[in-house]
Amino acid sequence: MDMAVDLNEFKHPAWITALGTGAGYLLLLAVLTIALFVVPWLVFSALL
C-alpha cells in the first residue's frame, strides 16, 4: 500500500494559527515560571 500524503493541506492558515497559539502559550508559561520561581529564588539567595 502506498499512501500519498499531500503536505499542502498543512499550509492552511488554521495550522499557522494553532502553531502560533502553542508557541505563545509556551512563551507565556516560560515567562511566568521565571517570574514566579526563578526571580524570588535569586532574591532570597542574595539576602542570605
Description:
This protein has one domain (6-45). The protein has one helix and no strands. It has one helix at 13-47. The chain is mainly α. It is rod-shaped and about 65 Å long.
Write the layout of secondary structure elements.
Blueprint: H1 13-47
Strand proportion, as a percent range, falls in under 5%
Principal-axes geometry comes out as: rod-shaped
Give the low-confidence spans: none
The Rg value, from CA coordinates, equals 20 Å
Largest sheet, if any?
Answer: none
Query: Which bin fits the share of residues in helices?
Result: over 70%
Q: What's the number of extended β-strand segments?
A: 0
Output the number of helix runs.
1
Order of helices and strands: H
What separation lies between the terminal Cα atoms?
67 Å
The mean pLDDT is 91
- Class based on secondary structure composition and strand pairing: mainly alpha
Number of domains: 1
